[in-house]
Design brief:
Structural class: alpha/beta
Keywords: Methyltransferase, RNA-binding, S-adenosyl-L-methionine, Transferase
Order of helices and strands: EHEHEHEEHEHHEEEHHHH
Number of helices: 10
InterPro entries: KsgA/Erm, rRNA_Ade_Mease_Trfase_CS, rRNA_Ade_methylase_Trfase_N, SAM-dependent_MTases_sf
Shape: elongated
Strand content: 15-25%
Largest sheet: 7 strands, mixed
CATH topology of the largest domain: Rossmann fold
GO molecular function: RNA binding; rRNA (adenine-N6,N6-)-dimethyltransferase activity
Helix content: 25-40%
Strand order of the largest sheet: 4-3-2-5-6-9-7
Protein name: 23S rRNA (Adenine-N6)-dimethyltransferase
Number of domains: 2
Pfam families: RrnaAD (PF00398)
Length: 251
């Protein structure tokens, strides 16, 4: 069991329930064996579990005192570096695992999703944030902007009592998988501009918004062929419907 040291910064909550690292490791064990990059290693509760997979592990931690403790604990079995998880290079063929400080969730997600080459990410976030990113109950613009390139999967809910200090909300495990074959070809920005324009556009539902933006004929054919209800909102669309809308708008 890991016990927190020092200051509680950036909304960082340390795992004290050994069942949680075991559950995260069970998900990571399904991936093809790549080196593991742990962002925000803290006291090493998750690091120790990841080592059992038999893969090279690199742990990034900002607190210099914890860096020393991690090196003492794991020796040569883990590469421990002092660094800021929001600035760490993510352009390597690795899988990413992180118990994310809640205050850094959005900047880390943006940096992660914009980075090339990594294949899988397993993130412990606030429960409601994990649900939103996985489009449970409707998607958000952030998820829709990256859906053609990534799958978002919601796993276990983690009770607040599994952390110290105990946060005011439960955590949730979000898995992000890079698609082998993207749903959209070409550069990212034109597609993302389309998503933003639809989410912020005026209209009585997404079909009306698309019709005002790209023409009634385009909207009508897209809705009919992709099964989009006239009363649907942008939050109701799936990844394939967004990708098809982009293809029709581009043509």
């Amino acid at each position: 069991m890991s016990r927190p040291l020092g200051r509680h910064e950036h909304g960082q909550n340390f795992l004290v329930d050994p069942a949680v690292p075991a559950a995260l490791t069970a998900v990571a064990a399904r991936w093809s064996p790549r080196p593991l990059l742990e962002l925000g290693a803290g006291d090493g509760a998750l690091t120790a579990a990841l080592l059992r997979l038999g893969r090279p592990v690199t742990a990034i931690e900002l607190d210099p005192h914890r860096v020393v403790r991690l090196r003492q604990r794991f020796g040569d079995t883990v590469r421990v570096h002092r660094g800021d998880l929001t600035r760490e290079r993510l352009d390597r063929p690795v899988d990413v695992v992180s118990n994310v400080p809640y205050a850094l969730t959005t900047p880390l997600l943006r940096r992660l999703l914009g980075a090339p080459r990594w294949a899988h990410a397993l993130l412990l976030l606030q429960w409601e944030v994990a649900r939103k990113r996985a489009a449970v109950g409707g998607t958000t613009a952030l998820t829709a902007r990256w859906w053609p390139w990534f799958e978002f999967r919601l796993h276990d809910r983690v009770p607040a009592r599994a952390f110290r200090p105990v946060p005011s909300v439960d955590g949730g495990v979000l898995e992000i998988v890079r698609r082998e074959h993207p749903l959209v070809s070409g550069p990212v920005r034109p597609y993302q501009r389309l998503v933003d324009s639809v989410f912020t556009g005026r209209g009585r539902g997404v079909v009306d918004v698309v019709g005002r933006r790209f023409g009634r004929d385009v909207a009508g054919r897209w809705a009919a062929e992709c099964g989009v209800d006239r009363r649907a909102l942008p939050r109701d669309l799936g990844p394939g419907q967004w990708a098809e809308l982009h293809a029709r708008a581009r043509s």
